[in-house]
Amino acid sequence: MQGRRLATTDEIIAIVSPDSDDVVTQLTAWTDDRGVDLSTVDVGDDIDDVYDENRATLGVTIGGDGTFLEGIKTFAPRNVPQLGVNTGTLSFLARVEPEDLEAALDEVIRGRAAVDSRQQVAVEGPGIDATGINDVMIEHVPPENPIDRKITRLDVYADDEYVGEFEGTGLAVSTPTGSTGVSLSANGPIHYPVNNHTLQLVPLHTHQLGVRPIVVSPSTELRIFTKGPASLLVDGGRAHRILETGEEILVTGAARLAHVVRTSYDDHFFTAISKKLGWDIRDVDDPPISAISSASVPDSAAARPGSPIDPDTAGSDTLERALTIATEAAEAAGEPLRELHGQVESIAVKSDKSDIVTEADHQANRIITTVIDNEFPEHGIVSEEQPRRKGEDGYTWVVDPLDGTGNFAHGNPNYSISIALLEDGTPAMGVVYVPETDELFSAIAGQGACKDGEPIETTDRDRLDESMLISGYDPDGTFLSHFYQESRGVRRLGSAALNLCYLASGSADATWEHDTNPWDVAGGLVIARAAGATITDERGEPFDFDLDADGRTALLGSNGSLHPALLDHLEDGLPTPVQ
Ligand code: IPD
Ligand code: CA
Ligand code: CA
Where are the domains of the chain? Predict the structure, then answer.
């Protein structure tokens, strides 16, 4: 099972279909019991009065697939993950049965549920601008006299290429989620919907035997021209229009994904398909042993080779368990950052014009700290974006939910998420995740460092004139002006955590920060040291930070061989860091 872990939940908003009173009573009792806020709205009503974008919200729908689709229309534009409780009859989307409601929600608030980000389809044309999670159908308009012709003709272009004229009862453009609906009865393929970001074009009742369904990427622009009147339906009529002859509509992948929560109480996809479609190529309730064992591998471990195993089975080693949780938290926080990247509208200035924070910093912080809190409620947390929480047992998490906010806010992809765990004050575990490239750097002190599960090491270059250096904050440009002439190059990138990972993985031979906060460097420090780096202050003393002291520290990291040469020059002329 793929999919990021869900970190939530301050509150639940439930969209409720008629005749669901029993399930609402169950949900009310559960939320009261757990101290989670609950608001309920009738299906079709707006949630604006109860939704607060600053709270971690879980959307729940109680009803059948129709209610689930209404939920998608409401929750997906707000990036709210959605769980469907099925009180309908045959449901492909609402997958939790009422008797499993409490257990499924317990899984969700423990951060153990997964979230699939599902492709949606967007349609634009005269008088219509809509998004659907299932399909866009363009069909013939039923003739007044049933013996009249029941076909329609549609010209289709994929980007600039003419696909051809489709003649039949119409066309369905469906998402992987919608691939099991109407298009299946028209001989379209079944799409496994997880991480599947495609669209398919399926001709309906075509009279042209050679014509087959077509699969396209979500960025493909399908332009459809009507050669007669046609009826356009999105998600079974949730948006609807009659098209005249000669109209053009554009169908493509929607920019926003829909976030669907899955718990272990859902049927697995192929089990559901087998039950509901009567497949006879497997036994519905009794998959072979090999399938059971791979299905039980947790999400992030399955997704990334070399990742540690499930915390429930990993034994008692706190650092290994912490590494798993930090990986899950960073990957979960990476998702909204990727979506918000390049769309920052509001920036708050903190201490000066370059010290800024955005809503994305806060969203990522909420996700990361919720995951940590779910798993390690007794640990302390120091994060750039919230007041410090002291722990009780010597473990403290140091979090920079978005390192490189300046880059992020200007649409530059060089930013990262940094999470470290200190054991009695010593950095012992570090994870740095790069959302735009999906690179994951990680280490446990003394156990080597990895990038995406593969070991990494610093370089062994010992000549300054062959070396590549990175400069972090360098207020008067002294580092740059000095070493630019001496080395092969000095790069100024913008994420201190990532700079340390570049040092760890050998794409830089050294990195310099005039002054840093603990959260900028705690994760990268563990990774760089475990990869063989030497990390000191500007005088060559071992680098250290004090969470209780309110001050910044200079940091010089190198592959070790270059350290003496770098220090020589630093001692010659760098300004004293601000304390
Ligand atoms: C900043 C970045 C930058 C460094 C600054 C940090 P932020 O962190 O790490 O590279 O030079 O000193 O404040 O504010 O983007 O989290
Ligand atoms: Ca930072
Ligand atoms: Ca930050």
Answer: 3-115+260-302, 121-253, 318-454, 464-571
**454 by DSSP, 3-state: which?**
strand
Distance CA 295, CA 311 (A): 16
pTM over 0.85: no
Smallest Cα–Cα separation from 535: which of 465, 458, 476, 481? 458
Q: Is the pLDDT of residue 294 over 70?
A: no
CB 527 within 8 A of CB 442: yes
Q: Which residues contact 530 (CB under 8 A, 6 or more apart)?
A: 430, 443, 444, 445, 446, 447, 448, 449, 504
Query: Domain 318-454 belongs to what topology?
Result: Fructose-1,6-Bisphosphatase; Chain A, domain 1 (3.30.540)
CATH number of the 464-571 domain: 3.40.190.80
**Cα of 405 from ligand 1 centre, angstroms:** 7
- The CB of 416 under 6 Å from ligand 1? The reply is no
420: three-class secondary structure by DSSP? strand
Task: Give the pLDDT confidence score for residue 9 in this predicted structure.
Answer: 74
DSSP reduced 3-state for 482: helix
The structural architecture, per CATH, of the domain 3-115+260-302 is 3-Layer(aba) Sandwich (3.40)
- Does the domain at 121-253 match CATH 3.30.360.10? Answer given as no
Question: Token digits for 33?
Answer: 């019991």
Q: Which of 344, 357, 473 to mutate to test the pocket of ligand 1 (most atoms within 8 A of CB)?
A: 473
Find out whether 133 and 175 touch, Cβ atoms under 8 Å. Answer: yes
Give the closest ligand to the alpha carbon of residue 519. Answer: 2
Q: How confident is the model over 94-131, as pLDDT tens digits? A: 889 999 999 999 888 877 788 888 999 999 999 999 99
* pLDDT tens column, 450-485: 999 999 999 999 999 999 999 998 888 888 988 998
